[in-house]
User: What shape does this take?
Amino acid sequence: MKRMASILDGNTFMLSDGCGDVDPSPDYPAGLFAWDTRLLSKWVLTIDGERLHALSIDDLQYFELRFFLVPGEPTHYVDAKTSVIRHRSLGGSFEERLTVLNHRDESVVLTLRMEVGCDFADVFDAREARPRPGRTVTTVEDGRLRLCYQRNRHVAETIVSSSEPADVDENGLTFRIELGAHGQWSTTLQAIGVIQGAGGRDVRESLRGYTQNRPEKRWELGEWVARAPRLTCDSEALEDSYQRSLIDLASLQYVGVTSQVKLTATGLPWYMTLFGRHSLITGLQTLPFLPEIARSALWVLSLLQGGRIDDFRDEEPGKIVHEIRYGELGGFEEGPHTTYYGAADTTPLFLILLDEYERWTGDADTVRLLEYEARSALAWLDTYGDLVGDGYLWYERRSSSGLDNQGWKDSPDAISYADGRLPGNPRATCELQGYAYDARMRAARLARTFWNDPAYADRLQQQAADLRARFNRDFWIDDGEFYALALDAEGGQVDALASNMGHLLWSGIVDESRAGAVAAHLLGDRLFSGWGVRTLSRDHSRYNPIGYHTGAIWPFDNSIIALGLRRYGFDEHAARLATTMIEVSGYFGGRLPEAFAGYDRARTRYPVQYPRACSPHCSSAGTPLMLLRSLLGLRPHHGHLTIDPAIPEELGRIELIDIPGRWGRTDAFGRGREHLRRR
Amino acid sequence: MADPTAEFFSSLEQRGPDLLPVKARGTIRFDLAGPDGGVKHWFVSVNRGNVLVSHEYRQADCVVSTDRELFDRLAVGEVQVVAAYNRNDVTIQGNLPLLLMFRRAFPAPPGTRDPRDRVRERLRRRDDLQGRVRPANRILPGDRECRQ
Amino acid sequence: MKALVSILDGNTFVVSDSRGDIDPSPTFPTGLFSFDTRFLSKWELTVNGERLNALSVDDLQYFESQFFLVPGEPTHYIDAKLSIIRHRTVGGSFVEQLSILNHEEKQVEVMVRLNVESDFADLFEIKDVQEKVGTTTALVEDGRLRLRYQRDTFRRESIITSSAPAEYDETGLTFALRIGPHQQWETTLRVETLVEGAGGRDIRLSIQRHRSRTREEMRQDLDDWLARAPRLNTDNEALTETYERSLIDLAALRYSPLATSDRLPAAGLPWFMTLFGRDSLITCLQSLPFTPELTRPTLRYLAMAQGVTLDDFRDREPGKIMHEIRYGESTAFEEQPHSPYFGSADSTPLFVILLDEYERWTGDVELVAELEHEARAALAWIDRYGDLLGNGYVWFERRNLRNGLENQCWKDSWDAISYADGRLPTYPRATCELQGYAYDAKIRGARLARLVWNDPNYADRLEREAAGLKERFNRDFWVADGEYYALALDTEGGQVDALSSNIGHLLWSGIVDDDKAAKVAEHLLGPRLFSGWGVRTLAQGAGRYNPIGYHVGTVWPFDNSLIAWGLRRYGFRQESGRIAEAMIDAGKYFGGRLPEAFAGYERALTKYPVQYPTACSPQAWSTGTPMLLIRTLLGLEPHGEHLVVDPAMPEGMGRMELLDIPGRWGLIDAFGRGRAEHMGSTRRGTD
Assistant: This one.
């Protein structure tokens, strides 16, 4: 794979090659994107007709990047006489400062050319290379290049200008520059993307906080990092990945839908938009650190809660959204993604986060304000969620372009029997039942404490207890001693051994007597690769170490499993998982990717990359945070923070200072011990 | 249906309390342009789920503009408001969150069935065909509440 | 630049792209190389006709790496159903273990194809593309593919075999496979390289080292090497990383030239995988406290190859120490002078300097006695052939006008030596550091003459000459208005007045007058020379300054290590620490591996040090740099039978322990910790 360089700012990003150039790529999202629309698909710099080569790249901040370049293929014996610095940043518009340095002892005349083009592809087009129904017009006016795409009333536009005079034609900008001996020349190129609302106004203008310049952004990033607790620890890998995570989470914040809240985009480059599931999980992971992420997620997801039955969007009343998109395809209903609801786990996770959020922050107002939405979500669990009518949570897609699987493992082959057959629909995966159980338990607390409805609370608790009893009967596979991945439409067990079981520990639905067997499986050879818990057992028919949901290892999955193991007292197991994940992050420069390969550790020296995994990815960035919580054993308890560290000896000391919460700010200390509790 | 838009608004005061979140509070004005260019106004005031509808032309927290034909299709559920907004067939100015909450008032697309009925019927047919009997304790009465 | 993956063992190395493939490149040394000849120029694996894509590369050791691959362009939504692992090793021959894993639950048919080709290019032909004179033939034999190159009696051959049955043709190997569900298939591919001597025997067979070694043998050898070196414990993680990296890289660069089974340091991958007089001498000087085993064979080999007669094509003179030796076709047919070539004026004094330094650390007087004749010949060369103008300085001017080097000092690119305004001086030229080396060689030679050769008269004479040289030098080279030493003298005895890093070497040699040293130190750490990442080769503001110019603006780690050493010699403890710190910082950004050179841009302008295009990496004397810096920081100096430790470490550096330092004292430990030097007293007298 070619090395790519990216900068991003919320759901705006620029993805180029290692020299800063963007070559047209119909099937890969290279270029400048905002709001799921490509605003530059070609951005190629040449000097005297020659492409440039990178000496090095400075990644200054997530929103700015600098390339040091020389013309032509570098050779060992001929020194380059010209070098070019491309310094680019995002913040509202895309800016690139070009500086050309002449290293000769004499003056020189150079022709600098920036090739510019745009296909205005929707991010889904960029995945599948579809023809574009609209029309692109390129015009040159007042020294600016204007690329304009129109389809009915949908208008997207990119305007490229330069601070220094340029010869502008329809394919780019040309500069003829004369440089004195050892002289230098600079210009600042700007590309402004405009997505027009009706009446020709940029729809984003109404969003306060949308446009920001670089100093403001730097300040904001500083503030963000300063708000989070400070970590000092002996493990450099942990410290690196913590810092990296805070910055990556900052980079994924964007203003969308409404100016009141910042949303968390999911992953670069494929998922630069809001996903219900991942913003909820990231909210859970980051609560002890940056509780505003959880608050924003709850707020925006309540706004977007399903209101009607809409088969095309797999929408039902009370359901929490799966994905939103702003691009052309959704607008023209060629895809359901404008607001798509094909997820069965978002609704219980919404309730879980609401309760967990209050436990940490003490923000009772939000719980009261969202009572209606929370009750609608609970009603959804009982009604549309229970497709079969047997008290479990099921899913089955109705949308022609929807998702076959509506749990977090949503690729078509993710849910299978051990022998590889795919079950019929509807399907009830096990972790959904855990979430539904947990959601009801937590909602009962909210009903009793805040909604003043003890009768409802009793009913929810009763339902939860029933569900737990039934679940432990119907999902437990006796001879294998683990929980089935799912039930099929006939109520039969889908008998694959999968990581989903770890989530059950987190939810608390597992019978005490069975937890030991579950923990042993999670850290056994079939699931645990040495680098983490695989999505699917390595002896299953669909196992593929580089299968997205059928063998790859997902950091966020592991973070939830670690927390679940601690819940049931498997401190040593949890610590082992946390330690390996931190080790893995060291091999990815502190940045855990969306997923990586499930090969046995003995086979690979480093964790192997999953092809084209998203990175940064929000809930992978949240992973080190949740692991810290698990290592330190942080739990809010009657208005206080309780600390119960379970840190392996090799991690040494961990201090987390100024943990925000209902207690104000408090510190947590822990140090590694040789013997941890193994239940 | 003679005037779907009128029916939509006239039933709103009655449907509102069930459909709208408590926190939905504010005013929305719908400016609907006719083929002749004339604009008809619907003024909706929402407060803790209670809805009042009038034809007043007043300043509102949120102003939604589109043509009458499109709104007729929104009113029967044929068109989705966010998608229409994304392709500029609908303009929204002001408080977008309020409109997102109000979105719940739009009905399902015509002919939509409760997904549970579809699934349960299918399973029942298959059970009958295969002579299967589902254990009674597996079928719960279920909450038949359903909003169309 | 595309990411390349290299593995090496001495002067045999493989450079491929990140998926393990070698695409033919006439202008860049990708391929399998041994003894300056490319034995594979194409090595391209396809599965069902598709090229592969890398998921990751494990660089296991310098001699082995492992690639994880999938067919086709990976996409986000479709999982690959096959994965391919290539595990390769060089150790005499090139071995690649190829595994294909089927992740499907059904049997699959897979067509695996390996395209193989060799152009048998000489490394010099790659620098400077030329038509091949000889002919290449491909022969398919029973169970092997032979690629042969012949030009008259000069023969090279690659033999490719596979452990699993294959269909061989003239352009490669094909495997038609059936792999069961979740099964894997493996084969071991082996490429033998033959350098045929008279009678068809591989001339390397005479060298015991050149037999193929297994991966296990090589791993054991590396473990032993690491165990012999001193252990470093420090608070500074970057320093630990770069030290460990350096030890491994230095191990990787050891090779045995023909005619000896000892192992010497080759200069750098990929262009300089051979012995260079200057580079090996300096690498040994840097690494002497750590890996003294390299020095003895280096001195002996260079002594053996010392010039005896005059030869204009090879710029050779009696007593001169060689510059570079090559084994390729162009050298064999005398199109290139490297058999060996002698175009360097500094390797001869450096030879004497290393000999003395070696004795001071090891106490090995026997070697000093054994090499007496060669050392005296080298000292004689300084006064005779070195002093082209007869005025007591060392000069150079090439006699091989076709492909000899114009500059015969370490900055040997054509434009390296210039006046401040950019003009180039005439020939012969006398660069300043050469005079420093000559001075130091005489002083050290005198010590050896007195101690081992039992010739006090000769010693007195050398010391007298040295004193005279120092006096003259401080008069003739000192640029009064700039207050630094001129880069060189031109033929007329005029000063080549560019400000350059060369003045740092003068401190190391001790030729600088005490009253001038402070100015020199000030220049070295001043804004014109010091970029923040290190001392530039040429000062900003000079006519030929170019931050990405090979010898006219880039920063060379080895150069900086000698400068730091020199600063300590004159008591500039804080300045020396600053350079060490900057280098260790820079090393961090190159994964602990300092490259040959990096760009001279201001540190404020760049967050990271900027890579110099196609710099060699690893490079022997960059590898030696962290070692010399550690020596400098700890202030290690042998005095008689003892090792003196006098740490001068910057405050931020924390603690450092170097355990089991080998030498005439057996093994000894050194400790130091960072402390603030008192302001205003940075110089604490000559060390």
Observations:
- Chain C is about 30% helix and 25% strand.
- The longest helix of chain C spans residues 456-476.
- The two ends of chain C are 45 Å apart (CA to CA).
- The first strand of chain C starts at residue 4 and ends at 9.
